[in-house]
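New here. Invent one.

***
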Amino acid sequence: MQNKYYAGCDIGSTTGKAVILNSDGVKGMAVCASEIDPEKTAIKVLEMACKKIDDINDPKDISYIVGTGYGRREVPFANENISEITCHAMGAFTCQPDTRTIIDIGGQDVKAISVGDNGEVIDFSMNDKCAAGTGRFFEMMAHIFRMDLTQFSELSLEAKKIIPVTSQCSVFAETEVITLLAKRKKAAEIAAGIQASVAKRCFTLLKKTGITPLITITGGCSKNRGLIKALEKKLRVSIYSLELDPQLMGAYGAAIIAKKNKETTI
């Protein structure tokens, strides 16, 4: 194998992500639903990414692998594991060097990350143990509306006004939304209230780390257009849209770090 490949494997609570690159850039990417066993998720998603590259047969052909995410210590082929906060910062910064603030919304947590001039993490804050505002929360809300996540993310864009959803607990928020629907309130306006509620939570986290443009959003919830609109309204600033899939940003950052660390040891 002439080309040297480097990979990042991000094992999250709901999905596994892998990015493989070489000196020419990204060559293979993959996303899969998380298995109960994080190691099985890592093997599956890395093999999926490897299949997209002709001269790689399996993860053993990759020169250096960095594991990240909550299951980072369960990536069997990893040469090292690094916090997802560091990896998301590196990934977003590499895609857009003007990035100074990142909102990372994953399956079970929300993070606000302040980024320095070289892509290093200056400060960060995380949500409390409640799942409100995370990917799991949006899955639950989409289920209430009998929609998939894509449909739900678009629903609030139709709203003429916002019906506030005030409950801070995900369980109580579910009850509140069901009650509003039972009262025949407009679904789009309730959805707008849900998005505004999550935007408010993100804003609270961002105040702890500082809100410095350019702002990017990473994680699976970055594809929620209704949330992006609500965040921009709350922050009063535009959110930059990354060209590479923002859900892959942790894995991409891990792959960038893998390449740098391998080259440093040569």
Summary: DSSP finds eight helices and ten strands in the chain. The mean pLDDT is 93. The chain has two domains: 6-86+247-265, 98-241.
